[in-house]
Structure formats: structure tokens, C-alpha cells
Amino acid sequence: MRVAVVTVGDELLVGETVNTNAAWLGEQLRDRGVTVERMTTLPDRTGDIARVVNEYHAEYDAVIVTGGLGPTHDDVTIEGVAAAFGREAVESEEAVEWLAEHGGYSHAELADGTGEIPAGSRPLPNHEGVAPGCVVENCYVLPGVPTEMKRMFAEVADDFEGETRHVVTVDAAEPESALLDRIQRVRELFPVKVGSYPGEYVTVRFEGTDTEAVEDAAAWLRERVEPVAE
Predict the structure, then answer these.
(1) Helix crossing, 146-156 with 20-31: angle to 10°?
(2) Is 87:118 a contact under the CB 8 Å cutoff?
(3) Is 3.40.1160.10 the CATH number for 2-159?
């Protein structure tokens, strides 16, 4: 399963808020065997959201959009997603009834636009907040507040599944450039994905659906690099 993640918010683009949602979703999806192929951050601008969601929903099995839900002037995600699918944003009777029953909000207490989702989409209840999310075709729209997003993702997590991937890392006390020949060789010998990440030392990461092949590849390289001192 191939997925794109879209996070919305001007505050993410200027660094006022750290984009923890993208990292958390990437980890959750990876653990479910899902391949995340795009992570895109957009401003609070309807046209940008509509354009990117329209492109991604056609290209990927699913799109997850977080942020920009609610009734304030810069909460335009629902409007943008609705436009991406050629729909209108309309008040969801089901969402408003849920808020009344579980949140204790009367219709008069809700700010204008609070219960709006794209026409024909399935509302997702917000157990940690107010603004509902929704599912429209293969697009999942979640809140930007991390606690709300995580709780709502739990409602739809079973929709995301793939082949479980095994990961093993090897740390080497050598420059990355010195490891190039051995990394190339291990890629030739084993059907696994290999990545190298320099820092205080180099971490070589092996990933694949064949557990034995991943373990064998890691063992092969581990025997041929200078280990990091304990």
C-alpha cells in the first residue's frame, strides 16, 4: 500500500511548530507495512490543498491530511479537500449529532462551520476535541492537534495495511565514503533496501520483507566494518 501524507499549516512552514504529526504518522504506517512515498507540508491556502490532494489521491492508494480543521479564518482544509473532489463543504448532520450526544454541544453553541465536511464523505468523530475529521474516497482528513490526530487515526488505522518489513541496523566507526564499496557489494548480494546515515558514526540500515535476507545482509556487513567502541 502506497500512501502520501499532507500536513497543513503556515506555522509548520516557518518553524513555529515542529511537524511531529508527519514523523508519528510515518512511523505508524511503516509499522503497519505501508510505504509512505510523499510527505508534503502546505500553507493554509485552499488552492494549494485542492491541487495537491487532487494529484495525490489519483496517484496513491491513500492520502492522509492533517491540520486546518475548525471554524477559524485559517482553517481551510475541509474547503480545499472538498474542492479537490469537486464537492461542496456541507454541514454533516451525523457529526453535529455526535457532538451533541458525546460532547454536550447544542447546535447553537457550535461556531459556524464546525460540523462541515465534504458532501458525501464519512465523518470521523473527534474524541479529544471538537472539529470532526472525515474520509472522502481514499483521502483521510485528521486534525492538526497531535492528541486529536492520534486518537482519530486509531479509528481508521485498520484501513492501512501492507507487508510487514524487517529492519536491522549496523553501526560503523568509519567514514561513509570509506564504506561505499562494501555497501555496494552488500546490495549486490542480498535483495534488501540499504541506506547509510552519517553522524557521530555511520549507521547502515537494512530493510526488506524477507527477514532472513535482512539479517544475513546485516551480518555480512557487520563482519566487514570497524565496530563502534562500547
Answers:
(1) 20
(2) yes
(3) no
User: What is the CA 95 to chain-centroid distance, rounded?
Assistant: 24
Three-state secondary structure call for residue 200: coil
CATH 1.25.40 corresponds to the domain 166-222: no
Task: List the chain domain ranges.
Answer: 2-159, 166-222
- Cell triple for residue 10? 503556515
**223 neighbors 166 (Cβ within 8 angstroms):** no
> How confident is the prediction along the chain (230 residues), in pLDDT tens digits per residue?
999 999 999 999 999 999 999 999 999 999 999 999 999 999 999 999 999 999 999 999 999 999 999 777 788 999 999 999 999 999 888 888 888 887 666 666 666 767 889 999 999 999 998 889 999 999 999 999 999 999 999 999 999 998 888 999 999 999 999 999 999 999 999 999 999 999 999 999 999 999 999 999 999 999 999 999 87
pTM of the model: 0.85
Distances (CA, A) of 200 to 156, 171, 183: 39, 10, 19
